[in-house]
Design goal:
This protein has 19 helices and 21 strands. With about 600 residues, it is α+β, with helices and mostly antiparallel strands. It has four domains: about 110 residues, no CATH class; about 140 residues, no CATH class; about 140 residues, no CATH class; about 50 residues, no CATH class. The strands form six sheets. Strands 14, 15, 16, 17, 18, 19, 20 and 21 form an eight-stranded mixed β-sheet that branches. Strands 7-13-12-9-8 form a five-stranded antiparallel β-sheet, with helices on one face. The chain has a two-stranded antiparallel ribbon with strand order 1-2. The radius of gyration is 37 Å and the shape is extended.
């Protein structure tokens, strides 16, 4: 007989050498614990798995009379996985009887700093999917999308999923978009007669009148601007607003931009300028459309009256499909500026930022500004960030250290201008790798940045599978002995032990720094850097340079070369390069 209350049967078998997860006792299940539903029991075990730092999955069930009599939930690493001879994946259960569940695990739990990578801690809701879809439509890649989410949430741990989840979601969205034909419709605005001004119309304030005319201009598809005024006693008696294409624009022989008004009587406080600026196209054609506001005061009531209104233009209006490019229809508020700033920090360019805004709002017409406005805003933000970019890096390092205690960083500032000259960092995983595989370390400084001219130098090595691993990395302001000595000193202090062998290129300053800081470490030169220069060092007088290069590489990479070996001597004599300085130097330092 089946009852409504489901009993979770958990059998504990303690095995020697097994690992029991550590978690809060309130979250740990026990034999005989009851749940009102199956989903409640599975949810409880999933929360226990998240706390204990392992993933779990459903593993079969037994069904009778339309009810699940047994439901098995196992560790995600249960069973084995192999591939048969035909290349078909086969999952093999470790135990035939899945009902004999154990609390012990035969593997290490997920590191506490990597809990966010667990499948049970990763989920994307509809809002996340919509955001990724908007980014995908805006041609923003998954990496930049994930970095932008990090900027929004403040930390990678708070995002709730990983970069691979974003990539998978973006892949599915791209597949879906291939089958969808996106149709865009233009929004057509028709100027209403109620928005059209007329002579004698009253306004309670000057700003109200100007706002009314600007709305009329937007509806009629032309831009307007203020064009001088007359004041008396601290009050604007006359205010002139004209079409943006009023007057003419010319350049004098000295290259000075000059704006010329078509009518002299309207230029009391005209915008005539004589400031030297860059040359650019002009749309001014002497249009006479305008409106004049005049101040009146009657029995203590103050108001502005439309004194003159000229509605005729001598040019075509802006096409309704291009209304969004009009100056009167473009404006960026604080929210827009903050969004562009977040995109700039996430290394998303202005074009992709504008496309993303279009996806958010649904149409370019609704965004409220143009791509050039975003570019100008991004330019200003980058200029502002130049003064605080180092502090942003240090803040990010500090935030990473707060999240992961095993993370370490150290930096050095110049005493003169307090600028960053050196920076080194590593995480707990890198330090563990170094103590396991750090006998041989490669230090390569062939990477550099274009903006700051700082040299990037990673400390790398290889594990027992010959896979590259990172031990740490640093930035230095120059490839000199003092800067590299500081970097090597900090590296040894952090790792507590110097490497046995370090492999570098032929930089002389690096050799001096290693001799100074790492006297007990064997210094060896990287053969890849040397052999990559071989072909360009071969004299052009040699006819068959390809053959010489091939024979030289065969000799260098052989195990027969020693001080009294005649193989190399025979090659250089054969091709007549025995007196070539570069080949002599390389042969002299062949033991490094």
């Amino acid at each position: 007989m089946l009852v409504d209350m489901l009993l979770v049967d958990i059998f504990f078998h303690y095995v020697v050498g097994s690992i029991i997860p550590i978690c809060n006792d309130d979250l740990r299940p026990y034999e005989g614990q009851k749940f009102s539903s199956l989903e409640e029991g599975i949810y409880f075990y999933e929360k226990y798995a998240q706390e204990a730092c392992f993933d779990c999955r459903r593993f079969g069930n037994r069904f009778s009379g339309g009810v699940f009599v047994f439901q098995y939930v196992v560790c995600n690493r249960q069973g084995f996985h192999t591939v048969d001879l035909l290349g078909v994946d086969i999952s093999i259960s470790e135990e035939g009887n899945a009902s004999d569940g154990d609390e012990e695990h035969n593997h290490d739990m997920v590191d506490i700093d990597h809990k966010r990578f667990m499948k049970g801690n990763r989920s994307m809701n509809d809002v996340h999917h919509k955001f990724v879809e908007d980014c995908t439509k805006a041609n923003i890649g998954p990496t930049s999308t994930f970095n932008l989410l990090k900027e929004f949430f403040g930390s990678y741990d708070v995002v709730g999923f990983t970069l691979n989840d974003v990539r998978n979601c973006s892949r599915d969205i791209n597949e879906k978009l291939k089958e969808v034909d996106v149709q865009r419709r233009s929004i057509i605005l028709i100027c209403n007669d109620e928005l059209r001004p007329y002579e004698g119309k009253k306004f309670s304030s000057l700003e109200e009148g100007i706002y009314f005319y600007e709305k009329y201009a937007q509806g009629a598809c032309f831009d307007c601007r203020r064009f001088g005024n007359r004041s008396s006693g601290g009050v604007f008696v006359f205010q002139y607003v004209v079409c943006n294409r009023q007057g003419f624009h010319t350049v004098d022989p000295l290259g000075v931009d000059i704006s010329i008004s078509e009518e002299g009587n309207a230029s009391d406080d005209d915008e005539v300028t004589s400031k030297k600026k860059r040359r650019r196209g002009t749309k001014r054609c002497g249009c006479g459309a305008r409106i004049d506001f005049k101040f009146y005061s009657n029995c203590g009531v103050k108001y502005y009256l439309v004194y003159q209104f000229i509605k005729e233009h001598n040019h075509d209006m802006v096409d309704r499909d291009h209304k969004r490019f009009m100056k009167g229809n473009r404006s960026m508020n604080d929210v827009h500026h903050k969004f562009v700033e977040d995109c700039t920090k996430a290394n998303i360019g202005p074009t992709s930022t504008f496309n993303l805004l279009k996806e958010f709002f649904g149409s370019y017409d609704v965004v409220g500004f143009t791509l050039n406005d975003v570019r100008n805003c991004s330019r200003d933000i980058k200029e502002k960030l130049k003064e605080v970019d180092v502090q942003m890096i240090l803040n990010q390092m500090q935030e990473t250290k707060r999240i992961c205690e095993g993370f370490f960083y150290k930096y050095q500032l110049s005493p003169d201008d307090n600028k960053l000259v050196s920076l080194f960092w590593y995480d707990a995983e890198s330090r563990k790798h170094y103590h396991m595989f750090g006998d041989v370390v490669t230090f390569d400084t062939t990477y550099s940045t274009n903006m700051y001219n700082m040299v990037f130098g990673p400390f790398t090595g290889k594990d027992n599978h010959w896979c590259p691993i990172a031990f740490g990395a640093g930035f230095v302001s120059g490839e000199n002995c003092d800067a590299l000595s500081w970097l090597f000193t900090v590296f040894v202090e952090c790792m507590s032990v110097a490497p046995r062998i370090i492999i570098t290129d032929q930089d002389w300053a690096m050799g001096l720094a290693i001799e100074k800081v790492l006297p007990g470490t064997r210094h060896r030169l990287c053969m890849w850097h040397i052999m990559s220069k071989l072909f360009e060092k071969i004299p052009k007088s040699i006819f068959d340079r390809e053959k010489f290069s091939k024979e030289s590489k065969a000799c260098v990479w052989s195990e027969l070369l020693d001080p009294d070996d005649i193989l190399w001597t025979g090659i250089v004599e054969k091709y007549g390069v025995e007196d070539h300085k570069w080949f002599e130097d390389m042969f002299a330092i062949r033991h490094l």
